[in-house]
Structure formats: structure tokens, C-alpha cells
Amino acid sequence: MKTRNLILTAAFAAFATAAFAQVEIPEVKPKADSLQMAVDTLLLEGVTITAERPLFSVEGEKTLYQVADDPTVQGGVASDALQNAPGVSVDVEGNITLRGTSSVEIWINGQPSNLTGENLKSYIRTLPANAIDRIEVVTNPSARYATSADGIINIVMNSKIKRNEFLCFGANASSQPFVMPWASYVWKNDKWTVNAYVSTYFYHGENDMEFDRNLFRKDENDSLVQASQSHSIRHTKYFTYSPGGSVNITYSPDKKNTYAFWLNCWDSFGPTKVTTERERTEYMEQAGIYKYMFVNNSNSNYLYLNGGFRYQHKFNEEGHNLTARTNGFLNRQAMPLEDHTTYTLPSPRERVFKMDYLSSNAPISANVDYNLPYSKNGEFSMGLRGSWEDGTNRNVVDTLTNNGYVRDSVMSYDYNYRNQNWGGYFMVQHRFGDFTVQPGISANCFRTGIAFPEAPDYDFVDDHFDVTPSLHLSYRTKSMHNFKMSYSMKVNRPTATQLSPFNHYDEEMYTTGNPKLEPIFTQNMEASWTKYWDDFGSVGLTAYYKGKKNEINTINESGYHEHYGRVVLFTRPVNVGRSYMAGGEFNMMYRPSGMFNLRFYANVYDSYLETDYGVLKTLEKNDLWSYSLQLSLWAKLWNRLEVHASARYNSPMQTLFNQVGANYFIDCGMRTDFFNHKLSVFVNGNDLFGLMRYSNTYTNPLSSGSYSSRSNSTYLCVGFTLRFGNVELENEAQTAGEKGGQ
Fold first, then answer.
1. What global pTM score does this model have?
2. Domain membership flag for residue 207
3. Neighbours of 570 (CB within 10 A)
């Protein structure tokens, strides 16, 4: 009897756990034959109720791809698995995009990986796909993710990594031309992870631009008359040198505590020469035809420093944790410039000036996040946020005279600004079977200020407080239909420079701020349906609406200014009275195997904008339907050769008073590995047929014009990566908490 009781207990525990369901034990009398019958019945029930989880599904704000349940990718690497995740693409150079945007963060086990550049590319091409349990794709991250990226891809492991160690060297080059040698190192054991990366970048480029402009003004009869028209041709030639490096260190002394530190440093500098030929016809003040040529020579320098620290404590393995994170930046841009302008008509003369421009800012942010599961189906998430930013802008212009260089007090300026933000959020996520509800609310207090040392009359401070809600709903059926609805509200405050009425003068125009700007209120709504098939792929439809009140946009106006002695163009920000973008997306992925997929994406939307053009007391409206189409192919042949091809078309799009012309291009490339992923070689062709063009037309009551540009978008890029080392895995199943799923 004792032996059979032991068997019964073990069988119950094993099969109840495997089935993810609770099986009740029937009441059994102490007879041998009855007890054996109960055991047999229980074993049969255990086999019957066991169900497979769907390969693709939606849960709250996350789309899940169960890599461990996909046998077609088990012989590949992590980049092969990512290619099959909904909306994710990896090109031949290893760059990862989500729904066409590169603003995406890669997380591992629920935490930012801090892997960038070639470190990230080497990791996803070295890590075996069978070490991954699932990939979570978040296209609209909620407040708890504490990220400014448009999307997050979380790679959840099913194996414990005992040790990583690989050293990589490589170089990329193209016919643009550019060349980028680099090196990276990754080392990991049970407690420590260290990855370091250094590279340097040489780039030489040229582009041409041609544009026309017409200016109008109101006369004494309050009628619009043309003030001037101009035609310009600009040629830009530049050389950029950019060395940099990063180091990331993570220490986990035990399963409950993790410490992480990172530091990144990049510098970019090089000479730029801009030559502009312009002919301007004046119809009013100083009437006549003017011809002149600008030659600008500058040697800009951009320095970027970023460092941060993160600490996480896990109270248990069911998702109860506390995370604290701080991050700091230092951005500095310096651009000394020398300008030589030659006027040929109507009175030949020369103007020479030099400019010293310096801009720097040092934002710091800190946040604390706390997650508390209150049951197996739900959890609370809450957090506090804080950010501080101090910045300065200095522009000094000296004009050459008979007495040497003299300070131009009109074109020179100096100001400091400060932005501060405090806030917090609270969210709940609960699952009712296959239905998930995720409501949330956040509150923020924002302060911005600006100070002009030489013009204190323009100093001011502005405060703002807002509370915004959000709601995510998702439902999935047994037949792999997935439905998702979401709503969120956001409030964005204008920056200090947008609010400042201080005038910034250029050679041909000036820019001013607008102290009457109001906050931007944005309402986001989205509803989607996606059907997944294990042996076909997926088909999805999404409808979305983004409505804005008081959207801030820049308008061009014209008027007489005594500094120029004629009618000139000036720009200022305004609140658009009403605007929205509403449309739908269709996406299809044909995926007969894990090593081949063909994707088609279409987006059709209506953009509407209206604003009260205060100068003319008119209500201006713009309405335009736009669409984009993309077809892409990815295949891995003989488990070694990757082939990529993509074609994209964008119809004309608009902003306030501006319309961007259509553009289209075709790219293709291939990559292959040798010696068990020790050597990788790729070749990539961008805009193969030279189809890409950029054009823009703008029309408003006081100014109109157009411009087009052509850059070297057609080029061939090649590169190689040489790796030393490997990834050692310990195949040990982890619980949901250890996997880091959120």
C-alpha cells in the first residue's frame, strides 16, 4: 500500500504539472484493484489533457514567438529566430529593425542587454537558437519599460549560459566610400559578464540640392503681393572621422541580486565644404536681380558620453522584483565656420565672417520600478521617474572689416536652459483565461526655463503638470486568432527654445520662438487582428488613430526686417489647431519553414492638419492620403548562405504646408558563415538602380517653394567578421521568473 501511494503521488505531480492544469484525485478505497484502476485512470487523464502552446500569440502589449516549440529553427542561431518573430527583420549586416524602424532595444531575460554595435551582432549570430525559449515583441512599450525606443525585443532564454568568451575582429567598407574597422570582446561566467567594443569610422560623402523660393507680403491695401523669388544650387562635400568605444559590466553574486554598469564614448569630427550659388529677384525694397555665391568651410566636432548603473533585486522567482536605474549623458557639439560670400550684382562686393558655435547638454535620469505578482494570473507594476537636463548654446559671429574682425552683435547669442521632470506610474495586468487586461496611469510634473546672460528680458520659467491613462486589452483563441486593442494618452510640453521669443539671425532668414505655445495632447487608439499558422505564417490587420490637439509645427512667414533692409523669411513654431493620422496596416508573412520567409507590408493613412494662420486671420487646412508598400524576402540556404532582398515604395507624405515627394528603392544582399560561425562575410547592395530621390514642396499664404536633393544612395557594402571563442550552455529548464518574462 505504501508503494502504490508513492506511485500515485509522483504520477499526479508529474502529469498535473505537465498539463498546466489541476487534476483532482478521485476518492479511493483501500483495495488493491481499485487503487490500481485509479492510477491507470489518472495516467490516462494526464496524457489526454496535455495541450501544446501556440507558436505565436498575443498577451497584453506583447507578441510572443515560442522559439522552443519551433523545430524548424533549432539548428540555427538567434538571428534566424529573430527573422521569424512578428515584425522583426535582421539585414545582412546584422542591423535589427522592428516594423521598419531601427529605434529598438534588445533585452535579455527581461532586462536591457546593453549590447550595441558589433557586440550585439556577434551575440545573435553566435547564440544557438535552441538556447531560446521565446521572443517577446513589444511595439508600443508601456511606462514600466523605462525606454525612449519605439519598440523592445526581449529574448527569453531556456538554457543557462555557463560561459561566454569570444573575441571578434572585422571591417566594413562601401563604395560611398566609407570604411569601419572594429573589434569586440565578450566574457561571461556564472557571476560576471563583460563586453567591450571599439571602432573607428571614416566616411566621405557628397550631395547636391536645388531649391526655389517665393516670398509674399501684405501691401497697404491688405492684399498679398510678391516680394521676391530666388533659385539656388548647393553642393556639399564632407569627410567624417568617428572613433569610439563602449564597455558594459554585469555582476550577479546570486540569483537575487544583479548589478550592471556601462560607459560609452564616441567622437565625430571632420571638415565640410558647402558651395551655394543663388540668384534672387527683388520686387519691392532694393528691387533688382542679385547674384551671389556662398562658400562655407567648417570643421565640426561632436562628442558623446553616456554612463549608467542598474541594480535589481528579485524577492522570488515569480516576478516579485525591484529595479533601480540611473543614466547620464554629455553631448557637446562645436562647429567653427568660415564663410566667404561674393556678390556679383547689382554692386560687386565681398563679405567674410567666421562663426564659432558651441552646444552642450548633460541630461541625467533616474527611475525605480517595482513589480509584485498578487496571483498566478496578475501583477502590479509601479515606478518613479526623474530627469534633469542643463544645456548651453553659444553662437559668436565676427565680420571682417578694414579694422579686422568685429563682433556682430545681432547674429551672436548666448543662452542657458534647464528642463526638469518628475513623475510616476501604476499599472495592473491580469489574465482571465485567454483574455488579458492591462490598465495604467501616469503622472508627470515638468519645468522648463531659459536664461540669456546678455538679454535678461527674455528669461522665463514655465511649469506643467499632467495625468495620463492607458489601457491594453488582448484576447487569443484556441485556433490562433489574436485580437488586441489599446488606448493611451500623452502630453508633451514645448521646449525652452521653442517658447523663447529671442531671434536667431542667419544670412538670409531668422528664427524666433513662441511664448504662447500650449502643451500637445495626443490620443492614441489601435485595434488589431492577427491569425497565425504554424505551417504558413501569419496575416494581420491593424486600424489606428492618432489625434493631436495643439500639435507644434513650424511655419514660414515673411516680412520686412530692418536688419536685412528688405522682406525676408522667418520661421516660428505654432500650435496646430487640430491634426490626426488615421489608417490601417496589412501584413502577411509566408513562412513554410524557419529558414525562409516572404513578407508583404502595406500602410494606408489619412493625415489632416489645420491651423489658425494668425497673421492673415485665415484657417488653413491640409488633407492627404498616403500609403507605403514593402516586399521583403529572406532565406537561409544549406544552413550557411543567407539571401536578402527588399523593395519599398512611399507615396507623397505631408507635414504642415509641406509635401514630401514619393521615393522608392530596391536593396539586396547575402551573407555566409564558415568554420562553424568563426568567419562571416557579407555583401549588400543599396538602392541598386538609383531610384531614390528626395523632393519637397511647401506652400502657405506668405511663402512657397520647392527643393530636391540627390545623394549617393547607390552603393555596394562589404564586410567580414572573424570570431574566436564560443558560447557554452547548460541545458537547464528555468521557471518563468528565472526567464525574466514580464
1. 0.77
2. no
3. 20
